[in-house]
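Give me structure tokens for this 281-residue protein.
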Amino acid sequence: MPEGDRLTKTRRLDRVIGSDRWSAGAYATESMASAAHPAAADTEATRTTPFAKSEWEAEYATDMSYPGVSAALGEEAGAGPVSSVTARHLLAVAYAAREHEKLLELGPEAYMVVWELAIDRRATSTPEPEPDCTIAFAAAKARASSHASRCAVEVVSKTRGVVGQLGRIIQNLPLVVADEIDVSGFPLLAKLKPDTKKLSASRVRSLALRVGITVPGDDDITEEDLAKWVWDLALLSKSLTCKAVGWLQRAAYLNQGRDSRRDDRDEIQTGNGGKGGTRMG
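Here you go.
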């Protein structure tokens, strides 16, 4: 790639990040301040990033500005480079590549520049061939359960070249399994159940409705539904304050304690003949 083109893309990245719409730095500062000063946590800002404020475009053109990304996203479908990508699909691909938090911070245009520059660097370098890369690539594709996660295999292999590690990098999109959904990709939500990092679908649905988000149904497993799960969980995680998560954790702990004490009383009564049992203070 000509050095002039690379410089142009780098300047475009600087321009997008430095634009008036860029507010992730302010968001991080406000969140840290709220966590450090509990008395001010009531005013902790939510939905201050362009994504959280629904300022992302529904679709972004890729054919002219991001030819490498366009080719990588289109290769999975076998139809050649794509001319555009929806924001929802882009976030799903980034999630599968474990890069969604970076995308949420930078925004689609800036992050596609990051991908494009990485693809350019790999195309102009001569890395040592990885052993069994063809087998590893095929295995990662076979384990991917959605179009977005298979696109992520293409993107990661072209941006990072770590074909031998694709099996450990690529993750499938979240879906409801046995009334639970994996929220490990969203740190704030994962804090609500730190032992398993899985929340019941009913709890996620309840939390989402409180902030005006309607998540997919338990049996909704189409490509669009899986991408919407990623979108909605990301939006939910940006809609909760650190203080809210703390209160939810405390409430869950207190409920667990009450259930435990109730079970203890039931066992005592059962062991002592029900109503005739020994009264405990």
